[in-house]
């Protein structure tokens, strides 16, 4: 019989990899929703994810494997915007870091757009002014 410690070592000899999050790795401030990670090298049915929040707190959630390439859990909940790091554990004591940040953001606000109108037959640059925009390409 293989002990949990040996099995843990063998399981994490190749760390799990998160390729992407569905719907996204962007989470609004003060909100939590179900998030699905597309993964590789995930060899267990249930596990614990520890989120290291921007304010220094730790948050623990249980994840469940849906199939070989998908794991479902709750996204982190925080009142502070910033980057959240992820760690995974099978025993809730020994954690391995996952190189996939979650970004908690404040809702954006549009204050103004310029120009307010444009001609259909000409190319026009539109400027959007506001707060809390995230600099990210989709």
List keywords for this structure.
138 residues; mainly beta; 8-stranded mixed beta sheet; two-stranded antiparallel sheet; elongated; disordered N terminus
Description:
This protein has 138 residues and is mainly β. Helices cover 6% and strands 49% of the residues. The protein contains one helix and ten strands. It has one helix at 4-11; strands spanning 17-22, 26-28, 34-40, 46-52, 58-67, 70-74, 82-89, 96-105, 109-114, 127-131. Strands 1-3-6-5-4-7-8-2 form an eight-stranded mixed β-sheet, with no helix packed on it. Strands 9-10 form a two-stranded antiparallel sheet. Strand 4 and strand 5 form a beta hairpin. The chain is elongated. The termini are far apart. The model is unreliable at 1-10 (pLDDT under 50).
Strand order of the largest sheet: 1-3-6-5-4-7-8-2
- Beta-strand portion reads over 45%
Gyration radius, to the nearest Å? 20 Å
Apparent shape: elongated
Instruction: Give the low-pLDDT segments.
Output: 1-10
What is the tally of beta strands? Answer: 10
Distance between the termini: 49 Å
What is the chain-wise order of helices and strands? Answer: HEEEEEEEEEE
What's the total helix number? 1
SS content category: mainly beta
DSSP helix fraction:
under 10%
- Largest β-sheet summary: 8 strands, mixed
Mean pLDDT across the residues is 80
Short précis:
With 138 residues, this protein is mostly beta strands.
Helix and strand layout, with pairings?
Layout: H1 4-11, E1 17-22, E2 26-28, E3 34-40, E4 46-52, E5 58-67, E6 70-74, E7 82-89, E8 96-105, E9 109-114, E10 127-131
Parallel strand pairs: 2-8
Antiparallel strand pairs: 1-3, 3-6, 4-5, 4-7, 5-6, 7-8, 9-10
């Amino acid at each position: 019989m293989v002990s949990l410690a040996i099995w843990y070592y063998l399981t994490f000899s190749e760390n799990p990899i998160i390729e992407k999050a569905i719907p996204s790795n962007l989470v609004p401030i003060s909100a939590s929703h179900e998030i699905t990670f597309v993964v590789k090298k995930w060899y267990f049915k249930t596990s614990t994810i520890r989120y290291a929040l921007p304010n220094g707190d730790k948050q623990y959630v249980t994840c469940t494997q849906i199939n070989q390439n998908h794991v479902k859990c709750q996204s982190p909940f925080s009142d502070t915007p910033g980057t959240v790091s992820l760690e995974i554990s099978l025993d809730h004591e020994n954690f391995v870091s996952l190189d996939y940040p979650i970004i908690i953001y404040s809702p954006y606000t549009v204050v103004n757009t310029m120009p307010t109108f444009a001609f259909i037959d000409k190319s026009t640059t539109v400027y959007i002014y506001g707060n809390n925009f995230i600099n990210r390409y989709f």
